[in-house]
Amino acid sequence: MKINTILFPTDFSQGANLALKEAIYFAKQAKAHLEVLHVYHRPVNGERFKSLKDKEKDVELEFEALKKNHPALSEISYSFKKELGISVDRIIEIVNEGNIDMLIMVTKGARGFGELWGSKTASIIQKVDVPVIVIPNKASLHNIKTIGLAYDYSRKGPTRTLNSLVNTSELLKANLAIITVNLKERFIDAERQQVKEQMIDELHDIPYSFSYSYHDDVEEGLMTYCNQHNIGLLCIVPHTYNFIAELFHESLTQKMVFHSTIPLLVIR
Fold first, then answer.
1. Together in a domain, 203 and 104
2. N or C end of the chain: which has fewer CB within 10 A?
3. pLDDT digit string (tens) for 48-91?
4. What is the pTM of this model?
5. In what order do the strands lie in the sheet with 208-213?
């Protein structure tokens, strides 16, 4: 899957500015156009802006500051775009218009899948049909040697899903580690073995390895493995891991142990 256009929403916060550096890097590797988006709302009582026009001028000044503080923008094709509306709704609409191939977003370091899915980022992930890279605060996409894929062979992902993963691995020149938690290799039944073999056929020339580990908590087990084996990006495909698929529907009050600064690649 060729990535032609990447959307990067920003609120001009420090975290978003750090993540923009990573989005620029990825866009350069992909030879893609980077669209930097800011969604703003009408001024309300108590804000320093007296009119919508004043607010729009401020957004333009913020864009100029980004251009000045990120000289690497000159090395790629990019554009700035401002939109009036509700941020979550407008981002989803723009992506689903069909001209965006990937979404890169920042999160403030959610402390659990449950908390991540309850955030604005999660609301967007669940309603867009393109791969999403989620960058925790201060995380990096530079120098990634290995991408981890959480996979239990319970179901096969669509071909386009694995194509997205293969494409990302090629762009970052990274190996692929397929991680299975709480399922030993010798207990893989015939159906799961078939799914595994079909997946191998679609990995093409990407160097890959299979790993099996055990942990009382699957989520914490994944993060432990990633931290111990220098996984730079963890790929999550909700439809191919029962645990993750169920997580999309769990209560937001449930706390998960997820102390990690590892970026996530979510492919629905």
1. no
2. N
3. 666 888 888 999 999 999 999 999 999 999 999 999 988 889 99
4. 0.84
5. 78-84, 33-40, 5-9, 102-107, 132-136, 264-266, 233-236, 146-150, 175-181, 208-213
